[in-house]
Amino acid sequence: MVAATTTPARRFLQTWVPLLAIFLLIVAEHVPLGRDWLTNMDIGFVFVPMLFLARYSEGVVAPTAILLLGVLKDVTSETPIGLWSLLFCVFFILALGQRQLLYNAAYNTVWATFGFLCFLIYTVFYVLAVLSLSVVPSFAATMLGALLTVLAFPLFNLAFDWLSQDDDPLGAY
Question: Considering only Cβ atoms within 10 Å of each terminal Cβ, which end of the chain, N or C, has fewer?
Fold first, then answer.
């Protein structure tokens, strides 16, 4: 995204719509569905808007909000305080490091990068959970959650695709 072709309103939306989506996805995780296996798997749909934020947001609002949303997830999921905050921040920083690559990348490259980052984060989650002894996840359920998150990426990414468009029909000058 080139600042010259993006209006302030679009930049505002590129920050706050994904942050609102992350908040709503965290809240939606606790809707009772009567399926205990879903809560054990912890599918991380919140990582899709985080990847979008890492690609397009500017300033300190997004990183600060990611940290606070991680604390919210820690509190609502009854995991040790700091676990999801750490995972959210690590994912965001790793995705931010790929910003230049992902800026003009083909869709398959973005999806593959997202998949790699998800499996990495879920592996870190599993290791940290085992070491903390307060959360005992199943490795198979953890990796299945990562796989389902990666497979759901195209559907969730469609919701954010319209935000990545240039405001100027001619693109950058």
Answer: C
Q: pLDDT (tens digit, 9 = 90+) per residue, 36-51?
A: 544 545 678 899 999 9
Q: Which of 142, 146, 148 is nearest to 41 (CA)?
A: 142
Distance of CA 7 to the CA centre of its chain: 24
How is residue 94 written in tokens?
A: 């790793």
Backbone angles phi, psi at 101, to 5 degrees: -65, -45
Chain position carrying tokens 């609002």: 61
**Which pair of tokens denotes residue 54?**
């890492």
pLDDT in tens, 77-128: 877 888 899 999 999 999 999 988 887 889 999 999 999 999 999 999 999 8
Tokens for 143, please give them: 């990796």
Is 42 within 8 Å of 145 (Cβ atoms)? yes
Q: What is the pTM of this model?
A: 0.84
Q: How far apart are CA 19 and CA 105, in angstroms?
A: 23
